[in-house]
Amino acid sequence: MSAASALASRVAALLAHPGVEARLQAAAGAWPLDLAEPPDVAALYAAADGLALPDGTRILPRGDLARATAWLTEERSLDWASDLLVVGEREDLVIVLDLDAAGARAGGGVLEVPTDGLASFQRVARSVVGYLERRLGVAGAEAASPEVRAREAAARRDLPALAEALAEAMYPGAERQVAHAALTLGVLLSERGDEAALDAFARSVEARVAAAARGAAAPERLAAWRACEIAAREAGAEAIAAACAARGRGAGEGRGGA
Length: 258
Prior knowledge:
Blueprint: H1 3-16, E1 21-22, H2 39-47, E2 51-52, E3 58-59, H3 65-75, E4 84-90, E5 93-98, E6 109-114, E7 122-125, H4 128-136, H5 146-155, H6 159-166, H7 175-191, H8 197-211, H9 217-234, H10 238-252
Antiparallel strand pairs: 1-2, 2-3, 3-4, 4-5, 5-6, 6-7
Helix pairs in contact: 1-2, 1-4, 5-6, 5-7, 6-7, 7-8, 8-9, 9-10
């Protein structure tokens, strides 16, 4: 089966899902940007000009995308990149498609943005069709974004899945999520006595530092290494805990520590 046929089949399965309400395709407007329309978005709008899911998620008609984006950015005086496009909404969230034309935001994807924090982007999926599949709980749905997969893997203490998710590029602004996920990975590796835990802890430290307020990097680095030391010790890895303590002391003495 070709990629186009596979996408068409996935879209057909979405539209046939109980409770999904779709608009007739005949009303579909033109793609509003000079950038190429993603294949999954094109496949979706070839079948329906917008839809609504049972959980209240709504994908806008294609002809409304530019208007909705312009209204929101102007109304809220948002300094959004020109390749961010509002594609839907759910309750107090705006659903945004990041096309990441310059390759500066980890490949872009589907973002959920709270209406009371429109500069706080949370990437949840790689594609619009994948996002809808996961909202509906479709079997065999496209994998979530690495940020979501890392969070879920950390919660269930799944070392291979966590390491795999953290190996991917993370979306800007996900530093706190990365810090927690990497700390969890360090703990899981420490429990095995694996010295690779130090690399995971170092990533957690640097993610915390990246998320720290201006001027707070030094104390944040000290606190982060202390947290890693405690976590390693609680995991029964005294040698790794000692190494974390040494790096923390190095940070305190101005030698970086990561």
